[in-house]
Design a protein that fits this description.
Largest sheet: 10 strands, antiparallel
Protein name: Outer membrane beta-barrel protein
Organism: Algoriphagus namhaensis
CATH class: Mainly Beta
Radius of gyration: 22 Å
Number of strands: 10
Distance between the termini: 47 Å
Helix content: 10-25%
Oligomer: single chain
Structural class: mainly beta
Pfam family, one: OMP_b-brl_2
CATH architecture: Beta Barrel
InterPro entries: Beta-barrel_OMP_2 (IPR025665)
Length: 262
Amino acid sequence: MQTTHFWNQLNLRWGKVAVSFFLFIGLSSSSFGQGMFGLLSGSGSDDQTISYGFFLAGHTSIYQIKYSDAFLNSANPAAPNVARISPDYKPGFSLGFIGMLKFHDQLHLLLTPKIGFYEYDLDVTFFDGVLDNTVQPDVEQTFNTVRYTSEQTLVEFPLLLKYRSQRFNNTRMYFLGGGSYRFRTKSQDEANLDDLTVDGQDFTLELGMGFEIYFKYFKFAPEIRFSHGLVDIYQPQNSNPLFADAISSVKPKTITIYLNFQ
């Protein structure tokens, strides 16, 4: 039912983001592949065992919602006045620093602490009349959708292993993967005021790819990264009772475009 529709939307959005990103990368590589003025860059960052940088990033994030078994059971439904729950993508941004440890020319360990600004939307569709107690069981039902929004500022500590291709002129391609620990800056008491209440700590799986483009004095690396929450962060006891029992788990998912400078 709704879960299938949600995954179709998710896959479609990922496809659009990936296509746009690779078109951008292709244009960048063709324009800057030979470096500034067609010269081979000698910025020297690849020769250092430890190097640093910073990044700016834009993301789109969503909560992956899983319905409870009771809600899906028509014989004994939880939150019987709820017709559908639909999370929605919301944009945000983050910024942070890059610390890189070189094991080999093609293999590096990255620590990229950052602060991110997130917003999560949840559209809950009720049978019309639920909110003002005017439901009429014998009349054909109509629906009323309410949007619940929560904002979060998160401090994140991704630890990633990065594998790079061999350098060709002034470009390299790379893949990276790892995990991240993150925590919310506002207290749990403040978070309990949200209609959809979640824990303040989370662990995520991070996977991504990008290109390094060498300039005379620095290195620029556009990157796309996918983040998947590993832990169920849902707190039903503190969430809005109108729909709390219809949800069994909540996990965040994020697609991020990074602009790295080293």
